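pipeline: protein-struct stage 2 | run 1193 | Smad anchor for receptor activation-like C-terminal domain-containing protein
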Amino acid sequence: RLFNKRVFCVVCCDLRFRLTHLGGKEGRVCVTCHSTLINRGYLKEQYYHNCHTDINSLVVPLRTLRKEQKKVWFADSVLPRNEASSVNTSPTRRDSSQTHPPTAAQVESTHVSVRFSFLLIPKGWELKQMHWCCVDYTVEEKRTESSLLEELEQGLTEPLVFVLNANLLAMVKIVSYMNRRCWCVMSKGMHAVGQPEVVVLLQCLPEEKRFPTDIFSHFIQIYWDAQTAGKLLNHLSHSSAARGFLGGSEHAGFLYVRPTFQSLDGLPLPPQPFLFGLLVLRAELPWARAFPLRLLLRLGAEYRFYPCPLFSVRFREPLFGQIRNSIMRLLVDFRFYRYTLPVVTGMMVDLEARSTFITIPKTRHAELLKVLNRSIERILAMAACFNERADSHLICVQTADGEYQTQAISIHSQPRRVTGSCFFVFSGSLKASSGYLAKSSIVEDGLMVQVTMETMLELRRALRDMRDFTLTCGKLHQSDRQEYVHIRWQDEEPCFNKGIISPIDGKSMESITCVKTCQRLEYRATGKVIRWTEVFFLQKEKQVNGHSRDANQKRLTEQFARAFCLTLCQSLCLLKEDGMSKLGLRITLDGQKFLAGSNGQCLPEHYQDSLKQALMAVVQSASQYCQHTSLQFELIFYILEDIL
């Protein structure tokens, strides 16, 4: 944009930087802005540098004292006590050599908030100085790593808590899962930046005597990417790690999955939504990036869990090697990843006896049109979603000599009636003189259908018009051996937001459209930050043609979010101290009503009165603008410590 009619020349505006409002993508910035962003990036580097720490620098055992208060230990060598109690929120770095251990009396009398500590896990520090970190936690006795491990071995009821920053915790416990002794490491605080919580089940090594602290650093990286760049992890997303991660040069990061048929018994789990991280090796990373469903199901076949295990094993052999003569080399750019197999949300491929069904939700027609417009005329290829209604699934196994074989994985002790497929390819390469109506075959873990060019054009028209379509495969005069491929549109929306409830009254948000706020909206006051993270459209306004007025709704929700934040800004400390760090605001335009709450209850009356004065004018104005429409939505906010 041009501000005050200033025009920047190429030299002054030829730099690029990853920008939040572009979803983490690079955009052009001027020299002044680039310098500011680089300085902020320097703080991030310092943050990461100080986070790669030895376990002795980060010990936080948790004990329940009463419902409101728990015991926590962590070492804070960032700010002295007099600085931590000041109101200066600028990040401060401090040498750990200047830290002096407090006396017992000093520890007992310490009540210091860590909201001002940007670097909470300095590198190489020892367990010396302990502070109270927030109102929900208090100081316990000084502990050593060996004593903590011994306590974990005895089977703690509550997990240990590790403070990663003032808004992010890691909960650690040793569990027995599927007859395997595993570290259970889960995050607490990712929801506040719009990111699902992360759970890692890592199988313990024989005689292991150290905590897997690399996972803590990885959690911090995920948190920072979500907070600053809007880079969020979802089902089948992946994250990368540097060499040496978890002690192995081949450990490359995690593939994230939602649990489906797997058992969760005995696992301490965060509130929904959450994802399990599966350890990925470097040889498997191309599949995690380009075709994650193949890797997920291959892990399931390796460890005999359907569809995949929830635990990770270090120093295992890779399941895939060099990419050779796979059909995916024709469909995916494995070098630069400029193109991959497109995915339409909720689209599934079911293989049954002599029939194949490709089902597409009607609500995803716009996504399908984008795929059609980007594909070449002779080829139509798409990846399918995992089908929870199927009792088995095709998988692809790479042999020792590099060849790819087709196998199947199924639910234990259940008959195989419906088999899922990972992808389909329609090719217009069949000649009319071949004597075939169409040819269908299973290739690796997907379906290949060869049709004539005329049939391909008919198929594309049917998809554009959202019409059901049936292909007959086989020779012309052998009806008894013919098979069928049915493309069907369904009204049923794919299930999502499982287990998510409203903070206002506990209303289920399952299968309700949710939009994350890519452009961060937050307000700071009294050392706290209130942040708007997402909006749920309980009842959505639509035009006659069926398309939502997304631009108008975006502006409307932003107006309510700003009014809500500004009204509560001066009360953030009180709200957080009362345990109301997650807030909800539900707006009903046609009834000119609003409802605000937290922890399943409405906000106290004095907050409601303040909100009424600020919001009713916006509600009435919006109601006049959106007459004869029915629109109801719920905004979600979080109150955080101001650490930036």
